[in-house]
TrEMBL record:
Known role: E1 component of the 2-oxoglutarate dehydrogenase (OGDH) complex which catalyzes the decarboxylation of 2-oxoglutarate, the first step in the conversion of 2-oxoglutarate to succinyl-CoA and CO(2).
Protein name: 2-oxoglutarate dehydrogenase E1 component
Subunit: Homodimer. Part of the 2-oxoglutarate dehydrogenase (OGDH) complex composed of E1 (2-oxoglutarate dehydrogenase), E2 (dihydrolipoamide succinyltransferase) and E3 (dihydrolipoamide dehydrogenase); the complex contains multiple copies of the three enzymatic components (E1, E2 and E3).
Residue ranges of domain Transketolase-like pyrimidine-binding in the record: 589-780
Keyword Oxidoreductase assigned: yes
Coiled coil (residue ranges): none
SMART domains: Transket_pyr
Cross-referenced Pfam families: E1_dh, OxoGdeHyase_C, Transket_pyr
Length: 944
């Protein structure tokens, strides 16, 4: 291409850039998908020649093929330059308020890299409608692209595969006329929110010197940005927003976004309780607490809740998503084109977003049936530091947000010193989410004016960064100066805003001295009608959970009737034949059938049931078959979905324990009218979710007054399958038991399992329920129940006395146990012909069934020995927990025996052996020890 300015075809003069697509016609663009959409045509030289030639002909000019070829070549290179800015323009964006990040202009963003130099920069080049222009110059094109992609916002979106999503974002960013424009009122509102955020942090720092608050200082632009989510979200159909965030800025969000009264927060800073004194519980530090409120924008009311969270960063993420999913479900806001009314917003730290695997587990939910929420807005407070760790030591990728590319979420990097740009990003995020139902990430680059907490000295580890921060003006100063220059405000307006807000804080500070919490916000809304148990005895009391014979028979037909159009697996056919025999004969009901009856009866009574886990549809051990799969089409048929009144959901979950368990906890948090169950593939796999168990399930009610009825199903039992496939770590759950916080059961009877599921929903309160579920007992001939055990006034039995016909006065040895080992003991005892030994199973370990156990022991007047038998090693299992409880029951029964003795495996670092022969010997030894038998005889008896 020549160096002088010239037309690309004879008689077609260059007349400067077009203000708009005046050239547009019905036959354009060539593909019908948009002007060179995705540049697929523009980068094809043949198509480009066609396009250039057509452009000349529209002017009525003769076409010179040589000039057309040269112009087409220039256009292809220009399009490559355009595409490079779309992909990599963010690398040259002005993002760091401190100007410490080294961000040199990449070579491929220069015209020279693409073959343009000198006067080439001012020659006309055809770009086919991109940037809103048909013709432009490379110089002007680069100016526009740098303004679009290299300003205070850097957009990453070309990793997205969906054309419509990319086009939407291009239309928002690309073009000669694309600027961030707010009205005068809007600019003043943004500045006012920044002032409130800054002055609030200053006020806390002055009144509570040295007290931890994890201030937002340096990131105050987030406050007006979050308000824009409420405002524009409400306009687009959002009626409920659920927030999750960690410490940084949380108190500011509580006060200035959520509307928690300042006096309440000041009361908590002074050591006051967030709840009435008679409520009890441990409470938590103020920057872990949540709240809920309603805010109105433009006449639209939006309910908001901030979920309480522990110090474990990002642990709250799946809880928020599960809570949102539940709310969407009972709002009937699930499905294609829905998910409009309830919005999840997760606020992250940069180090945590990059470093915590739970972030990816939650991103992975974004498009999975049963777990998607129609898109989550992720807001990263990017302080460019994690406690004392600089980014280069915290991650291997350029940005903390890079993990989000895995789910093709668009990422908006934005300079936190420009509150208009940050607010624009949030406005765009809610529009994108409501339109496409997908996650989007805002990465706000800012800084942390003080240390990790207000007592920390950050210059120990980042002296240069903190030299720059000390010199850096606050956001309100930078933004107000800009508005003064624009004539939007004057200095007096700014000072008035500061003074009036500080006066308000002083009034609230004075009022905090007399504040007393008089309302505990935990049994409202969907929880209305439920309550905390009046006393521990109430929580132990059973309810009648039997059902009518009519309902029982109706459920039997539902569970065994195969539609004529469904071709099921032949093995499943045999399973269903066996089930029909159970219902016809009224005997032999196994675990899976009892479970289905429990689910189905709750559905018939109007409750919903949600079960998820890695193999929950079929069941890890091929026992459940909740979904029947057509062998020709793979169409699913779920019998329990055809029970009227309730909603049944069963999902094979992603291969995640931490994320999925947190999600189900959040679901149960929002909906006490649903029986929500999470099933581990094997019980020990709950290890991967230990944070959720410790910080939420076991302690959430005590810390945050948040009741929860989640059920954990944890396969547990020693069958020689090795360490991870034996133990559900029962001891860990029992160690967490206190204050009536959870329920722990190790059930051996199908009917008892049926009743504990129903009891969970029929009582007037909710407590998490941990069930050690069986493996071999799923098909064990002794683990069967009769029809009558499910009916009428039957209920859950906390202890099971021996079924052997042994008179109480003859009993000299009492063997107490829990779980599968009971059947091994019964078989060995009966095989040895012992007539003075009885076996009592503890079906519920916590709350400990001390009263019924003491009554049962009290009838054994000639008792000489009490044994606790367990399969687990001595340092595992229930022994350390039950020992003192059994002693207390013996004392209450006034028994001559004072202490139980232990029979089980010896202490071990690994919960089980992986060698079948060793397992068999250990099992024989512990059974023999419990019953006083010969080990050799027991080994012989156990041989097939």
């Amino acid at each position: 291409m020549g160096n002088e300015k010239q037309s690309i075809v004879p008689d077609l003069e260059w007349d400067g850039p077009q203000a708009g697509p005046s050239w547009q016609r019905d036959a354009w663009p060539l593909s019908g998908d948009g002007a060179f959409d995705d540049l697929t045509e523009a980068l094809d030289p043949t198509r480009m020649k066609i396009a250039v030639r057509a452009a000349a002909r529209r002017k009525g000019s003769p076409v010179d093929e040589g000039a057309v070829q040269a112009a087409a070549d220039a256009s292809v290179r220009a399009m490559l330059l355009l595409r490079t800015y779309r992909v990599r323009g963010h690398l040259a964006a002005d993002l760091d308020p401190l100007n410490l990040a080294q961000r040199d202009l990449p070579d491929d963003l220069t015209p020279q890299y693409h073959g343009f130099s000198g006067k080439d920069l001012d020659n006309p080049v055809y770009i086919g409608g991109n940037l809103g222009l048909e013709w432009t110059t490379v110089r002007e094109m680069v100016e526009i692209l740098r303004a679009n992609y290299c300003g205070k916002i850097g957009l990453e979106y070309m990793h997205i595969s969906d054309v419509e999503e990319r086009r939407f974002l291009q239309e928002k960013f690309e073009g000669i006329d694309k600027t961030i424009d707010f009205t005068v009122d809007g600019q003043r509102a943004i500045l006012s929110a920044v002032i409130r955020a800054e002055q609030y942090e200053k006020f806390l720092g002055k009144k509570y010197v040295g007290t931890k608050r994890f201030g937002l200082d340096g990131g105050e632009s987030m406050i007006p940005a979050l308000e824009s989510v409420i405002k524009y979200g409400g306009q687009m159909g959002v009626r409920d927003i659920v927030y999750g965030m960690a410490h940084r800025g949380r108190l500011n969000v509580l006060a200035n976004v959520m509307g928690k009264p300042y006096k309440v927060i000041f009361h908590e800073f002074s050591g006051g309780s967030a709840n009435p004194e008679d409520v009890g519980g441990s409470g938590d530090v103020k920057y872990h607490l949540g709240t809920s409120t309603d805010r109105d924008f433009d006449g639209i009311s939006v309910h908001m809740s901030l979920v309480p969270n522990p110090s474990h960063l990002e642990a709250v993420d799946p809880v928020v998503l599960g809570k949102v999913r539940a709310q969407q479900t009972f709002r009937d806001d699930i499905g294609e084109g829905r998910h409009q009314q309830v919005l999840p917003v997760l606020i992250h730290g940069d180090a945590a977003f990059a470093g915590q695997g739970i972030v990816w587990e939650c991103l992975g939910f974004s498009d999975i049936r049963g777990y998607n929420t129609g898109g989550c807005i992720h807001f990263i407070i990017n302080n460019q530091i994690g406690f004392t760790t600089s980014p280069q030591f915290a991650r291997s990728s350029p940005y903390p947000s890079d993990v989000a590319k895995g789910v093709m979420a668009p990422i908006l990097h934005v300079n936190g010193d420009d509150p208009e740009a940050v607010t624009f990003c949030c406005k765009l995020a809610i529009e994108y989410r409501q339109r496409f139902g997908r996650d989007i990430v805002i990465d706000m680059w800012c800084y942390r004016r003080f240390g990790h907490n207000e007592g920390d000295e950050p210059s120990f580890t980042q002296p240069l960064m903190y030299q720059a921060i000390r010199k850096h003006p606050p956001i309100s100063s930078i933004y107000s100066q800009r508005l003064v220059e624009q004539g939007v405000i004057d200095d007096a307006w700014m000072k008035d805003q500061e003074n009036s807000f500080v006066d308000l804080l002083e009034e609230q500070f004075s009022a905090a001295a007399d504040y007393q919490a008089n309302d505990a916000d935990w049994f409202a809304g969907r929880w209305t009608g439920l309550a905390k148990p009046a006393d521990p005895e109430t929580s132990r009391r059973n309810v009648e959970s039997g059902i009518s014979g009519k309902l029982f028979d109706s459920l039997g037909r539902t569970l065994t009737t195969v539609p004529d159009t469904l071709e099921i697996h032949r093995t499943l056919g045999r399973v269903l034949d066996t089930k029909r025999e159970m219902f016809d004969g009224g005997t032999g009901f196994d675990w899976a059938t009892a479970e289905a009856l429990g689910f189905g009866s709750l559905l018939a009574e109007g409750f919903s049931v949600r079960l998820s886990g890695q193999d929950s549809g079929r069941g890890t051990f091929s026992q459940r078959h909740a979904a029947w799969i057509d062998q020709r089409t793979e169409e699913k048929y779920i019998p329990l979905c055809h029970v009227p009144h309730g909603r049944f959901e069963v999902y094979d979950s992603p291969l995640s324990e931490y994320g999925v368990l947190g999600f189900e906890y959040g679901y149960a948090l929002a909906d006490p009218k649903s029986l929500v169950l999470w099933e581990a593939q094997f019980g020990d796999f709950a290890n991967g979710a230990q944070i959720m168990i410790d910080q939420f399930i076991a302690s959430g009610e005590a810390k945050w007054l948040r009741a929860n009825g989640l059920v954990l199903l944890l396969p547990h039992g020693y069958e020689g399958q090795g360490p991870e496939h034996s133990s559900a770590r029962l001891e860990r759950f029992l160690q967490l038991c206190a204050g009536d916080n959870i329920q722990v059961c190790n059930i051996t009877s199908p009917a008892n399992y049926f009743h504990v599921l129903r009891r969970q929903m029929l009582r007037s309160f909710r407590k998490p329920l941990i069930i050690m579920t069986p493996k071999s007992l799923l098909r064990h001939p002794m683990a069967r129940s009769m029809r009558d055990e499910f009916l009428d006034d039957s209920h859950f039995r906390r202890i099971f006395s021996d079924t052997a016909d042994i008179a109480d006065e003859k009993i000299k040895r009492l063997v107490l146990c829990s779980g599968k080992v009971a059947y091994d003991l019964i078989e060995a005892r009966d095989g040895a012909g012992q007539q003075d030994t009885t076996i009592v199973r503890l079906e519920q370990l916590y709350p400990f069934p001390g009263e019924p156990l003491a009554r049962r022991i009290g009838r054994m007047k000639n008792l000489e020995e009490v044994v606790w038998c367990q399969e687990e090693p001595r340092n595992n299992g229930a022994w350390f927990f039950v020992e003192s409880h059994i002693e207390h029951a013996l004392a209450e029964a006034e028994s001559a025996v004072r202490r139980p003795r232990y029979a089980g495996r010896q202490p071990a670092a690994s919960p089980a052996t992986g060698l079948a022969s060793r397992h068999a010997k250990q099992q024989a030894a512990l059974i023999s020890d419990a019953l006083g038998l010969s080990v050799e005889d027991e080994i012989q008896r156990r041989k097939p």
